[in-house]
Fold this sequence. Notes:
The protein is an alpha/beta fold. The protein has 2 domains: 2-96 and 289-307, 3-Layer(aba) Sandwich (Rossmann fold); 100-280, 3-Layer(aba) Sandwich (Rossmann fold), CATH 3.40.50. It has helices at residues 13-18, 34-40, 57-63, 82-87, 100-115, 118-126, 155-166, 180-187, 193-199, 219-222, 242-250, 270-273, 289-307, and strands at 2-5, 22-25, 46-49, 69-72, 91-93, 147-151, 170-174, 189-190, 202-205, 230-233, 256-259, 278-280. Strands 8-7-6-9-10-11-12 form a 7-stranded parallel β-sheet, with helices on both faces. Strands 2-1-3-4-5 form a 5-stranded parallel β-sheet. Helix 5 crosses helix 7. The protein is globular and about 65 Å long. It starts with a strand and ends in a 13-residue tail after the last helix. The mean pLDDT is 96.
Amino acid sequence: MKVLLTRRVPDPAIRMLQEHFTVQVASEMEPLPEDKLLQVVRGADAILALADSKITAEVMDAAGAQLKVIADYGVGYDNVDLAAAIERNIYVTNTPNVENNVVADYTFALMLALMRHIVPGDRFLREGRFTHWDAYHFLGPELEGATLGIVGLGRIGSTVARRAKGFEMKIIYYDKLRKEGLESAIGVKFHSYREVLSQSDIVTFHVPLTPETAGMMDADQFALMKPSAYLINASRGKVVREAALVSALKSRQIAGAALDVYEHEPHVSQELLKMDNVVLMPHLGSSTHRAREGMGRVAAQAIIAALSGEVPDNLVEGTT
Length: 320
């Protein structure tokens, strides 16, 4: 049986798969354009796909009727045409739980970098402008006592909430499903989406990309936020409309933003690149050795199970 990796991933995933199957790595570093992917995918029984590899109906058909499973290397799976996979009885899996802690930690890294001016402060020193200590240099707010609004209290969002308790923050959240068990366990309060936006000092997004969440942060929503508030997005880029974000930042409708993902990734608005009140990172939320290795291990286990005639763990909803 043949397993196609759309791009090389850290071991042990490849070693695990090579013990059972013929493994082909489509590309070492750069994502393949669709026409090339359509060629190399032929005959694949399984695809291990990175998030920037679009697994369309055409790609599935090019692989052939023997394709049994698409294992996404990450939590998000919006790169896979789920309807097409369901129609063709193809399993689709992702890698939940592996990234919970590291993405939650990273969320606070973004928060602190933004609010404590870490990036402009670093640049200030490197440019030789640090000539003396100044009581007014790069002043920013503190996390202690601030209201953190979490949009999406799933695996990662709830881990962020637990971390926030250590910073002695007030935590409110919005989710399409109220999580009363977590409310009592963590000490968080449910609010409407509008209330979370209007009451929070920091709003952080931890939702999957779905038709309901796409563009859920647009001009009308930015208008609800405090002028002193900050926005953090380490979920999916299309959740936030970048044109509206740029407008809100330029008009000081909000104080700043930290982004790990982008609406038209990997392209980033030129306006954002010019701003000092934003922190911009190249989609690094899960970038630790242990997390990336764990993601590969979970994806490989799903493929091994599916090609052995078993139902793999971590099935994406609907692809049973």
